[in-house]
Amino acid sequence: MRLILVAGALALIFSLFGTPALIKVLARRGYGQFIRDDGPSTHHTKRGTPTMGGIIIIFASLIAYLCAHLVTGNSISISAVLIFGLVISLGLVGFIDDYMKVSRQNSRGISGKQKIAGQVFFAALFGYLGIH
After folding, report:
1. What would the pLDDT profile of 47-90 be if each residue is shown by its tens digit?
2. Tally of structural domains, the chain
3. Cα(119)–Cα(122) distance, rounded to whole angstroms?
4. Are 126 and 80 in contact (CB under 8 A)?
5. pLDDT tens per residue, range 2-40
């Protein structure tokens, strides 16, 4: 129980302080949201909103989990390694989508079918690894 509380508190702290810093870095580098002109006019206010923000959630969770293990002295379980592998893999699918949007400078990243295919692939892979 102590491990969960320590990890949760650390993840919250990393996220609270890391998110504003990451937003500034992403905005400075021009990694902003592109909005199609044919979309609803209310979406135009989102133009330029920094994208790829999920990186901080994954990073904060991973660092907090590892720090909590250092603090409590507990060993890292293989289940946790598999879960973080899955989280990082699914985050990679999202990162590729966002990166393609930014590099192409339009709102089209990878297709919905490609996203689902990537997610199903990684879920099946880590499901298989979890069973064996």
Report:
1. 656 677 788 889 888 988 888 888 788 888 898 899 999 999 99
2. 1
3. 5
4. no
5. 778 888 888 899 889 988 888 888 778 777 665 555 556
pTM over 0.90: no
Per DSSP, the residues of the chain read: -HHHHHHHHHHHHHHHHHHHHHHHHHHHTT-B----TTS-GGGGGGTT-B--THHHHHHHHHHHHHHHHHHH-PPPPHHHHHHHHHHHHHHHHHHHHHHHHHHHTSS--S-HHHHHHHHHHHHHHHHHHHH-
C-beta neighbour count of 9 within 10 angstroms? 12
Q: How is residue 87 written in tokens?
A: 């989280």
Proportion of the chain above pLDDT 70, given as a percent? 84
Q: Provide CB contacts within 8 A for 55, sequence distance 6+.
A: 22, 91, 95
Residue given tokens 């206010």 in the structure block = 45
Structural domain that includes position 102: 2-131
pLDDT 10s digits, 76-88? 889 889 999 999 9
Please give the pLDDT value at position 114. 95
